[in-house]
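Please fill in the sequence for the structure shown.

STRUCTURE ENCODING:
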């Protein structure tokens, strides 16, 4: 995945299956400390697992599933990841011997 550092959005805006990288945590010291304990640190990769558009959501971060309230997720800013497209290189193809 390629990071898009110029684009920032709230974690709650990611759709299921989308990845992002933590860019900022907004809130009080207790809230930020709790998030850090759960693995939400700057630069950490996070994947949206479940997001129905209202109510709580589930994310995967550091090999753990974490449920967050939508309000909490709105205070976690991420830059979405761009999926890398696998390119088929001609040099990777086996050479034909031509019997």
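FILLED IN BY: designer on duty
SEQUENCE:
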């Amino acid at each position: 995945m390629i990071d898009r550092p110029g684009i920032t959005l709230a974690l709650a805006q990611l759709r299921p299956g989308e990845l992002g990288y933590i860019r900022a945590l907004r809130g009080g010291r207790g809230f930020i400390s709790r998030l850090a304990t759960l693995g939400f640190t700057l630069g950490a990769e996070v994947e949206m697992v479940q997001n129905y558009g209202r109510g709580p959501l589930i994310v995967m971060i550091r090999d753990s599933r974490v449920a967050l309230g939508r309000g909490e997720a709105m205070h976690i800013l991420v830059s979405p990841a761009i999926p890398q497209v696998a390119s088929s290189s001609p040099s990777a193809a086996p050479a034909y011997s031509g019997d």
